[in-house]
Write a structure and sequence with these properties.
Blueprint lengths: L1 H12 L7 H25 L2 H27 L5 H26 L5
Length: 110
């Protein structure tokens, strides 16, 4: 789902003005890619604490995207409908990350 989010961000930012290429376009793209990248990296390390930390970083990147999307909407770079659609997907990802973080914080029952 986080990869779908990044793909959507790329599609939307393709329409941003050229003068935003090294600003908002680049920031949004990097932050959106960071979500799935941190989830993958943390799960691949094999250490519980590292995974917890990576989930926190992924969540932070998602919140960064939500903020940047609102800036883009206010600048009229993205439509209200596209912004709502991405926010909805972001909310679902946020809930999944929160649940995953909660499950990682529970003590092992072995």
């Amino acid at each position: 789902m986080s990869i779908e989010f990044a793909e959507s961000v790329y599609k939307i930012t393709d329409q941003f003005p050229p003068h935003e290429l090294y600003g908002l376009t680049s920031q949004l793209r990097r932050a959106s890619v960071s979500i799935s990248s941190n989830i993958a990296e943390g799960s691949g390390r094999g250490f519980h604490k590292e995974f917890q930390r990576s989930i926190g970083i992924a969540y932070g990147s998602l919140m960064e995207c939500i903020s940047q999307l609102e800036i883009a909407r206010r600048r009229s770079y993205v439509s209200l409908d596209d912004c709502r659609s991405l926010n909805s997907l972001g909310e679902r990802i946020s809930k999944m990350l929160s649940r995953l973080r909660e499950s990682l914080n529970r003590p092992n029952e072995t």
